[in-house]
Amino acid sequence: MSTSTLQETKVVTQRFDAPDGARLDGYRRTGGYEALRKALSTRAPSSATQTKASPARSKTAS
């Protein structure tokens, strides 16, 4: 494979200019994974709660 056929991969991120922004520690230091941490710490509603709130609920369901 010749060098003329290789393509450069460019990474676009808001952390591009941050020191170590491309490394895991730098990513975490600049707020990386915060949304994931928040989502994992939130309790999902129970199935019963979801069923009761559903507009598609059957009229025969109690």
Structural class by helix and strand composition:
mainly alpha
Largest sheet: none
Rg over CA atoms: 23 Å
Tally the helices.
3
Average of pLDDT: 75
Euclidean distance between termini CA atoms: 67 Å
Number of strands: 0
Strand-residue proportion: under 5%
Low-confidence stretches: none
What general outline do the C-alpha atoms trace? elongated
Indicate the percent of residues in helices. Answer: 25-40%
| Secondary-structure element pattern, one letter each | HHH
Question: Care to describe what's here?
Answer:
The structure is a single chain. The protein is mainly α. It has 3 helices and no strands. It has helices at residues 24-29, 34-41, 47-53. It is elongated. 0% of the residues are buried.
Which properties best describe this structure?
single chain; 62 residues; mainly alpha
State the gist of this model.
With 62 residues, the chain is mainly alpha-helical.
List the helices and strands and how they pair.
Layout (H helix, E strand, L loop, with lengths): L23 H6 L4 H8 L5 H7 L9
